[in-house]
Amino acid sequence: MKILYAISASLMLASAASAQSPCGPTYRLEYRTVYEDREVTAYRLEQETVYEQRTVTSYRPVWETEMRERRYTVARPVYETAEREERYTVLRPVWEERIEDRSYDVVRNVYETAEREERFTVQRPVWETQEREERYTVRRAVMETAERDENYTVMEPVTTYSPVQVDQGYFVDQQVYRPGPVRNRLRWQSGTCVSDPLTGRTAYQRGGLFWTPEQQPGVVQTQRVWQPNLVTMQVPQTSYAARVITRKVPIQVCRYVDEEIVRKVPVQVCRMVQEEQVRRVPYTVCRQVTERVENKVPVKVCRMQPEEVVRKIPVTTMRMVQEEKVEQLPVQVCRQVAVEETIQVPQIVQKQVPVTYSYRVPRTVVLRVPVDPCGNEIYVPSTPAVITPSVPAYEPPPVNHSTPTPAPPAAGYDSGSENGSNGASKQKPQIDPGQAVPEPKDESSSTNGATRSSQKVRSKYFPKYDRET
Length: 469
What we know:
Elements: H1 2-20, E1 26-101, E2 104-167, E3 170-178, E4 182-189, E5 192-195, E6 202-205, E7 208-215, E8 219-227, E9 230-293, E10 296-371, H2 445-461, H3 463-468
Antiparallel strand pairs: 1-10, 2-9, 3-8, 4-7, 5-6
């Protein structure tokens, strides 16, 4: 309101001055909008991935092979050979020649043919049809719903101690009797009654020479036998024991009911009828005739004469000697080796990057235009004085305070052209900086709208700048 009062007062003073001095120059105020280019530096937040070098120590298993000694005791057999005297009796054959009477009887068969009447009974089959009552059982299915116990097994770890028998025995010398071989020899056996093992009948067996098994004398030998000594040791053993859990499960049970059914079945029955038949059978009768055959044969007879013989028998005795052996065994050993590695750890770092941009600031300037008494503009070829309103955070550029020299307008001057006929530039006269200049009115809505929109944009994107201004 104060600015409006100042503007109205200045207009009244200007009208009064023009009225007092009719021949003096009169000025008209013109308001114009100019745009200034300004550069602003803002900071934009950017994220950058930075890799940091770190040293990490890890342990890597390294398998090495080392030799270990294993000592164990073995029993090595040692054989010793000795000689012993053995006296035995042998039968030495002594051959003698003599004549034996080997006359024998020859039995000759004489065959005679005759006939006899033979009666025998024959079974003749006779087939008859009969009916018999057949009873059989049929199983009828009956479905019922019942509950049954269903068992399922859960494995649980159980530690048990199982007895293990370890043999800690030793060798013992024993005398072993080995029976001699069984040989068949011809022996005279007298007549006796013998039973047949198949039929069980008893028959008489005549005497004569028969092959009879005979046991030869046995031999006593010394052998080394392992005498076991079982020691029971308890060995822990972890196993999974099955535990049975029971639950009720409904099931469909099919029960079969027995039903007896009777039916008559025709059956072919075979009945055997006995018939007696007579037939004549020819047969041959063998009659034996004995004849004597004389036979005298010279025979060499072997007579066994006993004789004592002495011989030396090598005897090998085995003796077990305990020896300790050392064996080199390769063993795989795992050793942890420290390995240092350099890795890159990504980190996100935020930094502010300065960004410079330009924008245009609208500014209203007031020009004092000299007019003649008729209201026509007087164009002066000098730099116009610019009067700016008080705008915070803005310093106007320096203004030349020298008084412009007015020049008469050239003939044929065109206000739309930029240069006159005498080369005068299109410039407005300057006003006195000390003179009070009213602020511009809201005459052009377009200018004020552009100013307000630019202020909104500036306050939205550059709040820092608005706070400073």
